[in-house]
Amino acid sequence: MLKQIRLELFKLTRRSRSYIGFAALLGITGLVTLGFKNGPPPFQEMTAPPGFVTVGSVLNGGLVAWFLLRFMIEFFLPLFVCVVVGDLISGEAAEGTLKSMLSRPISRGRLYSAKLMTAVIYTAALTLFLGLASYVVGAVFLGRGALMTFQWGGLFEAQGVFVYSEGEGLVRMLLAYAFAALAVLTVGSIAFFISTLVTNSLGAIGGAMIVYIVLRLVGVIGYFDPIEPYLFTTYMGAFEGFFIDEIPWLEIGKYALILLTYSAAFAGAGFLIFRRKDVLS
Amino acid sequence: MEIVVEACGLEKRFGAFSAVDRLDLVVERGDVFGFLGPNGAGKSTTIRMMLGLIKPSNGSVRVLGNDTWRNRTRALLKVGALVESPGLYKNLTARQNIRVLSEMTGGINRQEIDKALEQTGLLDRSDDRVRSFSHGMKQRLGIAQAIVGSPELVILDEPTNGLDPQGMKEVRELIKKLSKDYGMTIFLSSHLLHEVEQVCTKVAVIHKGKKVASGSVPELLSGKGRLRITVNKPSEAAAVVDGSGFAKVDEVGPGWIVVGVQDGCASEINRRLVTAGFDVSAVIPVSTSLEEFYFSLMGACDVEADQA
């Protein structure tokens, strides 16, 4: 099993597709940092509640990492994860390498599990890379220091501006990014599921993103409030809980479990298909 | 002899279409088994069932004693395969391709990978990416990954597809060598008759999903002897031959007839014609090639299908 994961990761590192997300996230990080550094007070307009005045600079690596997490989890992170994860099985089917692999004495369950683990590793790597890149790039160009975040409303009904020392801010950031990886994995697991059905990765990527965006849309329309608790998209923003002074561990744990259940359901459904599917490509 | 591949009542239906229909096959250890049929006859579908890539609608295939759908990992332990167009990683080198695939079988070292590359004439290109390979080179790499580590059974689906005549010849030589020197059992599907005739010890012919003939090559061709008889009054002579009960006239020409006879009956036909007062000046055996046999078989199948 470990050997197969190693082989899958080796193949992943040899595909240019795998690097699109990393390059794009780095580019966006640079763009945001540039804007923060040179713009006429961009931070006040973009991130702080109206009427709130800060004295001294709150611009630093921590702030860039926090800002980008809130922004990127909406669309780009799920997209870049789906681009790779949605290709893991469908791409092999399209290239005809799925039949080459399955002509070898490896059980379909084992191959599927190795692919799934690769998807998890990639999702975690890309999400954590965003955190690392934004923190480091931000720190280099804007400096380091205490982390200031604010919230109003949202999943935890929290309100206010929260300031943490650099060390504490870093720990909270790491936890938030870890949760975000779990949230993005849920979208990725839809792409992975569709990847077992199609021989075109575009179908898997597009399909997963459509499902995700439609669910997000449904989530903001009042009429659909009764079903909102059942949509996984409702809980994707729960990483914000790590920036409240009293971290709501119980709720975050509950939401993490819900997201994990969704991921497991999609992965399980994909397995049932992959286990018995006729490999015709 | 030990049975290496055994298909029993193997069937695959896609909706109403029957791709493979109640197929029985037996391949014994050491055979170079030719699986012959026109395009779309069901050869690749059969091979995919042999490898557990698709689930039979009915019946089963056992490879090296294990059912390939229920127990693929054990069945495929000592099997190498090339299925249709070689599925390769274009962004990996030739060597990396073999390594990535053969590590899934396990126990294959660098020397063995080098040997497979050398046998297929790819050693000097082994560190180039497959992206830059010609069609024929990809085909040879597909063969290399199938034979690496000297598996007991090698399944090759149209291995000479896309190769030039020289490449085709090399592959045929390689197949013979693998069988002779390494004792591998080879299952070779092809629509090229001369290829099968030159390489294979046994043949099964499949048409529209059904097996229409099988046996060793000489077996299939025996009893199909034809004679070209140079005789005066060919039309009258033809009537005598047809009346004999053990021979049949195929063609009547000016001064000759071509007669299909059972084995060992040539002298008897000659005697009858001479006794009946014909001047027989020559009796020449017309050798039947697998090709002629094949086309007569396909013709017969289509006539049957039309009548049904």
Overall morphology of chain A: globular
Query: What class would the helix/strand composition of chain A place it in?
Result: mainly alpha
Q: Strand order, biggest sheet of chain A? A: 1-2
Biggest sheet of chain B, open or closed, and with what strands and sense?
6 strands, mixed
Largest interface: A-B, 25 and 32 residues
Distance between the termini of chain B: 38 Å
How does the overall form of chain B come out from the CA principal axes?
A: elongated
Oligomer: heterodimer
Radius of gyration of chain B: 24 Å
Describe, in short, the structure shown.
By secondary structure, chain A is mostly helical.
Structural commentary:
The complex is a heterodimer of chains A (281) and B (308). Chain A is mostly helical and 281 residues long. Chain A has eleven helices and two strands. Chain A has helices at 2-13, 17-38, 42-47, 61-72, 76-85, 90-95, 97-102, 108-142, 166-195, 201-220, 249-276; strands spanning 147-153, 158-164. The longest helix of chain A has 35 residues, at 108-142. The model of chain B has no long low-confidence stretch (mean pLDDT 89). Chain B is built from eleven helices and 14 strands. Chain B has helices at residues 43-50, 72-75, 94-102, 110-119, 135-147, 165-182, 193-199, 217-221, 234-244, 266-275, 290-307; strands at 3-14, 17-28, 32-36, 58-63, 66-67, 79-82, 153-157, 185-190, 202-207, 210-216, 226-231, 247-253, 256-261, 280-286. The longest helix of chain B has 18 residues, at 165-182. Chain A binds chain B through residues 3-4, 7, 10-11, 14-16, 95-107, 276, 278-280, and chain B through 48, 51-55, 72-77, 79, 81, 83-92, 96, 100-105, 145.
